[in-house]
Design brief:
This protein is an alpha/beta fold and about 270 residues long. Helices cover about 30% and strands about 25% of the residues. Helix 1 (about 20-35) runs parallel beside helix 9.
Length: about 270
């Protein structure tokens, strides 16, 4: 019996308009009515996820969510983080310098609450800020941010350049302390080596005393792979990347604009 559903947001729960459809909202409520926990597991910052949940009218329904690709587990009822994986600021500085020295036209981004700190003011970072209702702040000196807590780095730019960045980071002195993964073709996530959605999901399942065999995970992108591998049941969206689909027990016939999430939930739960 499924007791936790962990669903990605972009490309899975959200349509390309970045909204949760009325059909998906109704289905999520049905899942919760069965007594199961429905949680979002996203690369988005907590600030942005809370707003998406509120826009969908699910604030009083969804108790927990995973943000920053596993950087935190947030308790919506008590309005606090119950699990946090903070990225070492010395590592952040080294990555910042590596990117600026080797691929300066990539944008280096850090999320914190209602702010996104960026090295470039361009269209993509503007869209990223607007998508999460964050205020964009240009980084003049990385040391200015030393007192803040960050869970991940986001690199933004052309896919080929991001692949090159991932290789540079892998080969660097800090390569064994981090992991990289794409959430979208133009977004490369950089996390601590021991942090991702699956790690946070394992922690939450233990916290709720639910075995992973009773967890259903739904996703579409590279940053969902470990979560799909970890859950007892796994679904990849029809629009998922090809290399992601091989980790799924089931692939939806419908994409994220056609309520593929609802298809997945109805396939595995008695709704």
């Amino acid at each position: 019996m499924i007791k936790i559903v962990a669903a990605d947001m972009d490309g899975t729960s959200l349509g390309t308009d970045e909204n949760i459809s009325e059909t998906n909202i109704k289905t999520i409520k049905k899942v919760i009515d069965t007594g199961a926990e429905f949680i979002f597991a996203s690369g988005r910052p907590a600030y942005g996820i809370n707003l998406k949940i509120a826009d969908a009218g699910l604030t009083d329904k969804i108790r927990y969510f995973i943000a920053y690709n596993g950087g935190i587990v947030y308790d919506t009822e008590n309005k606090k983080n119950i699990y946090t994986k903070i990225m070492d600021f010395e590592i952040i500085k080294k990555i910042y310098n590596l990117i600026l020295q080797n691929i300066p036209d990539l944008c280096f981004c850090l999320h914190e609450d209602e702010f996104i700190y960026v090295t470039q003011d361009d269209e993509i970072t503007t869209l990223e800020a607007e998508s999460n209702h964050q205020t964009k702040v240009l980084i003049n000196d990385i040391e200015d941010l030393s007192g803040k807590k960050f869970m991940k780095i986001l690199l933004v730019g052309e896919h080929k350049k991001l692949e090159y960045a991932a290789e540079i980071l892998k080969q660097s002195e800090i390569g064994n302390t981090i992991k990289t993964m794409f959430s979208l073709d133009m977004l490369l996530e950089v996390l601590p080596a021991d942090s991702d959605k699956s790690v946070a999901l394992k922690w939450l399942s233990e916290y709720l005393n639910v075995p992973l065999t009773s967890v259903l995970a739904v996703g579409d992108a590279e940053n969902d792979i470990e979560m799909l591998k970890t859950a007892g049941y796994s679904v990849a969206m029809q629009n998922a990347y090809k290399h992601v689909k091989k980790y799924a027990d089931y692939i939806t016939e419908k994409n994220n604009d056609e309520n593929g999430l609802t298809e997945a939930l109805e396939k595995f739960l008695d709704l």
